[in-house]
């Protein structure tokens, strides 16, 4: 194999992969090149994930009694066996999905100088840049990110909400409200599937925390050497992922020790269980490790919403899910402390969840 050319761009500019693509489209700087064990296998023979469960939300919310029971049991099985599922007929207007995708893409296509007005400060996770980068020698993801705290109001940084594109902030507000409703409803049906009262999570979570992160993955001349996003599980209760319509398949989940690509269903949203639900269900529902890979010719866009409890609350396994056969696997802890622990560590599989384990 020919040696990989190393870019002379200094750290600080190196982490903007869109700029790198413009100036040196075939060069993969060493900072992005993964160790052999971490590199993705991009064999075309990899099985695709047509068997990832699909949940028809309208059957949960508006279906007959039989449809509700059938769909609820499918949702419970999806949470227990996969930790990932796609939701169709979710009730969010398709024109809103198109709008959020458009303003997101328009933002990433702005000149770098404009985007740098919203730069992510070191040690934070809001703004434009790369989060979870803690050292000079850490490998970087082949991805540009833009993240915002949405709810409650005190986590917002108004200086980071862009004025360009013009409709960006308004669209994010409307979209976030709709996704919030979906999360609240899904948690209701997830609770019922566990044999709990539908409002148990809503009552427990207090003033919920919601954030949005947009990821843009430019094409990469050597997708076999890099990762779009490092393997990790999410610290949230639920995560909602919208994948850009015309983008390549990039999401992969770890299932039975194998990376399985997730082929998005048009207009569906992909939901995954976060660490918080794993702890609350005492490991019955597990957060799932996932990552993103890149494509040689196609870019990829994703819009991710994280939905989590208030930073103030104490979390631990729910009494109803602990017994002789299922002894308590996690300690009680303050969710704000866990969130701080999560954002101050690099993405490394499910390592951050060790914080909560007994």
Automatic annotation (TrEMBL):
Keywords assigned by UniProt, alphabetized: Iron, Metal-binding, Oxidoreductase, Vitamin C
PANTHER family, per database record: OXOGLUTARATE/IRON-DEPENDENT DIOXYGENASE
UniProt-recorded Gene Ontology molecular function terms: L-ascorbic acid binding; metal ion binding; oxidoreductase activity
Protein name according to UniProt: Fe2OG dioxygenase domain-containing protein
Cited InterPro entries: DIOX_N (IPR026992), IPNS-like_FE2OG_OXY (IPR044861), IPNS-like_sf (IPR027443), Oxoglu/Fe-dep_dioxygenase_dom (IPR005123), Plant_2OG-oxidoreductases (IPR050295)
Keyword tRNA processing attached: no
Highest rank taxon of the organism: Eukaryota
Residue ranges constituting the Fe2OG dioxygenase domain according to the UniProt record: 208-309
Family: Belongs to the iron/ascorbate-dependent oxidoreductase family.
Matches recorded under Gene3D superfamilies: B-lactam Antibiotic, Isopenicillin N Synthase, Chain
PROSITE patterns (alphabetical): FE2OG_OXY
